[in-house]
Amino acid sequence: MNYSHYFRRCTFVNDEFFLLKKLALLFLKRIPRNERGCHYDSVLSFVSSDDILSLIEYHLDPKLAISWLEFRWCAQAIALFQKNVSSALQEKIGSLSAEERRAKTVLKFLSCNDKCRDVNNELKAIKQQLLSNERLEAILYLTSRKIASVVGPGLSLADLRFNYSSGAAVGVKGGYTSSLYKFNGKFVANEELCCVFRYLGRKGLFPRWLQDVEYTPCGISKLFTVPKNCTSDRTCAKEPKDNVIVQKALGNFLRARMSKVLDLNLSKNQAYHQELACEGSVSGDLVTIDLSSASDSISYELVNWVFPDWLVHLLELCRTRSTSIENNGKDYFVNLEMFSMMGNGYTFELESLLFYSICSAAIYDFDGNTNPRLVVYGDDIITEKRYNSVVIEALTLCGFTINVKKTNVDGPFRESCGGDYFLGHAVRPFYIKDSLTPARIVALLNFYYGSYIYGILYCFFSPYLPAMFKNFGPADRGDGHIHCNQWKDYQDIKEPRIASNDVDSLCSGHEIDFYETIIALPLTPSPIQSFDYERALLSVGLSNLMQTKMHCLEDDLFPENHVRDPYIIRNLKTKKAKLMRISRPGVHNKLSPVIELYAVMRKVLPEVAPHIHDMMSP
To answer: Is the entire prediction scored with pTM above 0.85?
Structure first.
């Protein structure tokens, strides 16, 4: 059976709009009668009258909510439609089509580029003393000092970690975006980088394949859009694939320096941001600040002013200076006044360091505090409430626009890095972003696992979920099955163990159980090539646990780690598999998932099992 088709792409709902409407009403009924205020009345009215466009545009002001329950369930009712780009639903409610959303987004991008041009002209005029803005100059001076203290006096080739990303890029087609394909293709980069890499290859400073590879100069990125919600998209850029090698290396360098000097770990800071957002929603002492089109608002001259010259030169070396925009089958080229776009390998780290430094400079200029409570993750900023006005003023002076709807200074609500909190209560809703496939229904059920509404939702969705997908399993093993405490009672699996000496020896002292779930595996080429077994490892989401045994491997080697929609897996075959769950009572053993992974691979990809066993060996 083609589980990929049915589980991830097909919907078994005849009238999806009607079902979502019923579901929205079900959530609204969870609000106690004495806590139903103006938000409840408005949302109920929009849903009942099928006025979904008004529902989507409705601003759920937390200051007007009677309680966290009213806010939570009203937010969840809106979230069923707000980011849903299902074509059937869009046609039903009469919202913008995909082409209209793209056109709207491209116009916004061009507007941001024009604004960056204005900022560039202003900064050039200040440098040439044609204009005077003492406040801005003071902020930029302090910002440049902070950045210089973080990045240090320079770097060497040994400080850079070169690796591909798993994203789309100029030079690769379709979903073939893993390193397996990028290494085998032509070397596609701007002319400056082609010259640099030729030189490094001749000097033996890089692998010998650089001497023989075919070089294809390309200094232009390609703009594309991805759905953000049902009324707009977000822009991203396909960079030349080998520009990204250097971009990511510089991004990794900035990330390491921020972690070392500022104790700002961008790899793990999301959870910390959520903790601070929760704290701020209770105490009110912390504020969350969000920026609109942050990465598209970083002007070239701003970076040139506040970053050291040696680093600007390296950033400029691998930067694309223009992008192409397709319109009616023709490509139009736009010179970039912004420094970089999303899709560039160092944009996230660059903006994180830039925003942190601007905020730090504003605070120091305000009261001399050199160690404020300040954390930054991309354009998500959290700081103390007393510094709110000076931080916002500094960011505005530097050409950035505050997202007022997502900036929370007063009231009981704080939002940061995917965490929404109302007086300490988690109120983040589950967003349905496309058709109600079995995969999305299962993910929605699992999202509310542990909540009192879990059983109500299961009864609601049970008629729409085919029996072949009503598999129950452990809550710590993904969304290929429905989470359940008593999952063992629902598993009709008779095998007590796996008949394998090597697995048995590794499982000594552990309890072994089996469960059925839906797993995704890569469509590997035939015959098996090098690195294919690594892609198989990531396909069940356990590569991080094997980092110590896979010294040279990175998550971004694999295409299945980069998907637009987490419930639609491209270039994968999906199958129902019988997996092993290993546990040791009272002991937290990181090896258990690795043993399970080995057992899975032995069954579903026996060709690669020897490679995995070798990596697991001491």
So the answer is: no
